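User: Run a structure prediction on this.
Assistant: Running it now.
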Amino acid sequence: MNEQQKLEELLGRYFSEQDIAYIFSLLLPWTGDYEGISDWLEKPIPAFGDITAIDVCERGLSEHLIVYLAGINIGGFA
Protein backbone atom coordinates (compact mmCIF):
# COMPACT_ATOMS: atom_id res chain seq x y z
CA MET A 1 0.00 0.00 0.00
CA ASN A 2 1.48 3.35 -0.99
CA GLU A 3 1.35 6.57 1.07
CA GLN A 4 -1.64 7.96 -0.82
CA GLN A 5 -3.64 4.80 -0.17
CA LYS A 6 -2.69 4.85 3.52
CA LEU A 7 -3.88 8.44 3.79
CA GLU A 8 -7.11 7.68 1.95
CA GLU A 9 -7.77 4.83 4.36
CA LEU A 10 -6.99 7.00 7.40
CA LEU A 11 -8.99 10.00 6.24
CA GLY A 12 -11.83 7.78 5.02
CA ARG A 13 -12.75 7.27 8.67
CA TYR A 14 -13.70 10.95 8.89
CA PHE A 15 -14.33 12.26 5.37
CA SER A 16 -16.12 11.40 2.15
CA GLU A 17 -14.12 10.62 -0.99
CA GLN A 18 -14.97 14.09 -2.27
CA ASP A 19 -13.68 15.69 0.93
CA ILE A 20 -10.47 13.65 0.75
CA ALA A 21 -9.87 14.78 -2.83
CA TYR A 22 -10.42 18.39 -1.73
CA ILE A 23 -8.03 18.00 1.21
CA PHE A 24 -5.39 16.50 -1.06
CA SER A 25 -5.86 19.34 -3.57
CA LEU A 26 -5.16 21.86 -0.81
CA LEU A 27 -2.37 20.08 1.03
CA LEU A 28 -0.31 18.67 -1.86
CA PRO A 29 0.88 22.10 -3.05
CA TRP A 30 1.76 23.08 0.54
CA THR A 31 3.47 19.85 1.58
CA GLY A 32 4.95 18.61 -1.71
CA ASP A 33 3.86 14.97 -1.54
CA TYR A 34 1.72 12.46 0.31
CA GLU A 35 4.39 11.88 2.95
CA GLY A 36 4.31 15.62 3.58
CA ILE A 37 0.54 15.45 4.03
CA SER A 38 0.99 12.60 6.50
CA ASP A 39 3.51 14.66 8.44
CA TRP A 40 1.23 17.72 8.40
CA LEU A 41 -1.68 15.71 9.78
CA GLU A 42 0.45 14.85 12.84
CA LYS A 43 1.68 18.37 13.63
CA PRO A 44 -0.04 20.45 16.32
CA ILE A 45 -2.30 23.19 14.95
CA PRO A 46 -2.34 26.32 17.14
CA ALA A 47 -5.82 27.30 15.92
CA PHE A 48 -7.15 24.06 17.44
CA GLY A 49 -5.38 24.38 20.76
CA ASP A 50 -2.21 22.65 19.55
CA ILE A 51 -3.86 19.33 18.74
CA THR A 52 -3.20 17.59 15.45
CA ALA A 53 -5.53 17.42 12.46
CA ILE A 54 -6.13 13.76 13.24
CA ASP A 55 -7.03 14.66 16.84
CA VAL A 56 -9.48 17.23 15.50
CA CYS A 57 -11.14 14.52 13.42
CA GLU A 58 -11.16 12.02 16.28
CA ARG A 59 -13.05 14.60 18.36
CA GLY A 60 -15.78 14.70 15.72
CA LEU A 61 -14.74 18.07 14.31
CA SER A 62 -13.66 17.03 10.83
CA GLU A 63 -15.93 19.63 9.22
CA HIS A 64 -14.03 22.31 11.17
CA LEU A 65 -10.78 21.08 9.66
CA ILE A 66 -12.21 21.48 6.13
CA VAL A 67 -13.29 25.05 6.96
CA TYR A 68 -9.86 25.78 8.44
CA LEU A 69 -8.04 24.50 5.35
CA ALA A 70 -10.37 26.38 3.00
CA GLY A 71 -9.74 29.57 4.97
CA ILE A 72 -5.99 29.19 4.67
CA ASN A 73 -6.38 28.50 0.97
CA ILE A 74 -8.07 31.86 0.41
CA GLY A 75 -5.43 33.74 2.38
CA GLY A 76 -6.38 33.29 6.02
CA PHE A 77 -3.85 32.79 8.77
CA ALA A 78 -2.74 29.30 9.76
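Helices lie at 3-11, 17-31, 34-41, 53-58, 62-73.
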